[in-house]
What does this fold into?
Amino acid sequence: LSNIGGISAKEGATQTVGEIDEPYLQRLLSDLAQAKIKLDEGQAASTAMLNSLGEGLIVTDEQGLITTVNSYALKCLGYEEHELIGKWMPKTLVAVDQFGRPLSQLTRPGVKALSTGQTVKDTIYYLTSSGNPLPVSVTVSPVMVGDKPTGAIEVFQDLTRELELDIAKNEFVSLASHQLRTPATGMKSILSMLSSGDFGSLTPIQQKYIDKALQTNERQLQIIEDLLNVALVDAGKLELDLDVADLSDVLKGVVNDHASTLENRNQSIKLYCPHDVRLIIDVQKSRMVFDNLISNASKYSPEGGAIQINLRTAREAVEISVRDEGVGISEDQIARLFTKFTRLSNELSSSVGGTGLGLFLTKSIVELHGGTIHVDSKENCGSTFTVRLPTRWRQDHV
Ligand code: ADP
It folds into this structure.
């Protein structure tokens, strides 16, 4: 407003109120009215813009008081604007985890963004005004002035639809796998009886093809079992049947199971492990972990390669590494390795076949035990998968 109606503030300032002539005053008022209209238009445009966002938006000041909420957020959360504006966000909008437990102040994305000055992303549940949990994926960015956060902008997406689809997909996978398991198991018993001569002796060629059919059926059952387990992981229902067991015995057993396959591929396997490594584990699922790692070490190595397994005990954990001399994994593919249905392209992946579920299940089982898994690998230079299991772990679960 320093140059309203072509008269500069300086020029206007030379006149006292009593001296301002009528036309000048009229022009001043009309310019002010124009400026107000422009301001209102600007505000209306930003409000329309915020409200046309297909995502929830909540802005807070540096203390966490809500200053702006768009209509999408209000609709999802079931609040009126006046119920949120000026309120302290952590207290007004209750956030809970997937089990319905309230998040502590310090773990709330908004609080973290304000205290660290970093953008925080998370998936949480907000309680709506009627108390129902609303699953949301939130991104909170601090508003920085210099190095000081002066507020935060939170954008969230309603994940209800995605979760419903996910649940429907899991139920389908689980139902289909259950339905497939019964006939495949029936087939297994008939083929086993045929193979062992229960219905009369077989010619060598008949024996060969029945054994092939039996192997294929085993593979089929394995895939069905993997799909059932993936559905359980996705539904958060994969449970451990814990017991005290000797991990060295588990490893020896799995290595033995692979002996003939490895021999056929001319591959060697060495197990280095101390005796009697007692741990609280689910023996059957731990077998699945090492079975998968050894099977991969063999599948993704050329004939004649060597596999080495080392078990190392430390004060608070046991580390088991499975090392191969195979095709390896490039750095940019490692991040995708443990996700569902991931099959990386390498020179052996098309010939050996697989579902891309093994490492996803392996990681899920290791994490259920409170452990971690990581891989060191380089293309064409082999891979080492290392599982770390804590020795003093959730004794209360036994
Ligand atoms: P699958 O073996 O059934 O494809 P996994 O989940 O066990 O599924 O493995 C996912 C992918 O990771 C494999 O397709 C393969 O490309 C890669 N991979 C796994 N283990 C190794 C390994 N030891 N060496 C090289 N690549 C591997």
